[in-house]
Amino acid sequence: MLKKIDHLGIAVTSIEEARPYYENVLGLKLDRIEEVPSQKVKTAFFDIGGVWLELLEPTSPESPIAKYLEKNPSGGLHHLAFLSDDVRNELASAGEKGIKLIDQTPRGGAGGMSIGFLHPKATLGVLTEFCSPAKD
Q1: Which 3 state secondary structure label does DSSP give 68?
Q2: Each residue's pLDDT tens digit, 17-32
Q3: Whether pTM exceeds 0.85
Q4: Which of 51, 56, 91, 132 has the smallest number of Cβ neighbours within 10 A?
Q5: Count of CB atoms within 10 A of residue 27's CB?
Q6: What per-residue string of b and e applies to 44-69 under the rule 16 or more CB within 10 Å gives b?
């Protein structure tokens, strides 16, 4: 079951260059910066009212974020993530309803979360992520 919007993923060419906007203009406080080698990204998280803004900087030209930035050089909103009780069930349910999946099964994401994506061609152009705390 979906619980809330967990985060908005925002592609940036450089977290260090983007930070002043989020900190000095919007007045948000950086919570953490983390590298996710499996996703080939560095992330930075800002909390705003219980919803995270996740800045995504590519660490490799093969990163999905690098590919996004090739098409969108200014960066921008990359994905919308929903917190769920169980990513595996969300993916299975979406697949059963005919939604094209990027991930057939959950994988690891930032903050130790279990994540899975739906293809934007099947979700009205919005790359959609389900996430939940990884289960032991």
Answers
A1: helix
A2: 999 999 999 999 999 9
A3: yes
A4: 51
A5: 8
A6: bbbeeeeebbbbbbbeeeebbbbebb
Q: How far apart are CA 44 and CA 47, in angstroms?
A: 10
Count how many residues are written for the chain.
136
Q: Count the neighbouring beta carbons within 10 Å of the beta carbon of residue 112.
A: 9
The strand pairing partners of 104, in sequence order, are none
* Angstrom distance (rounded) from CA 83 to CA 28: 22
Tokens standing for residue 9: 């993923």
DSSP state of 23: I
- For the chain, the 3-state helix, strand and coil shares in percent, each to the nearest 5, are 30, 40, 30
Distance CA 71, CA 111 (A): 27
What would the pLDDT profile of 39-56 be if each residue is shown by its tens digit? 999 999 999 999 999 999
Distance CA 127, CA 85 (A): 20
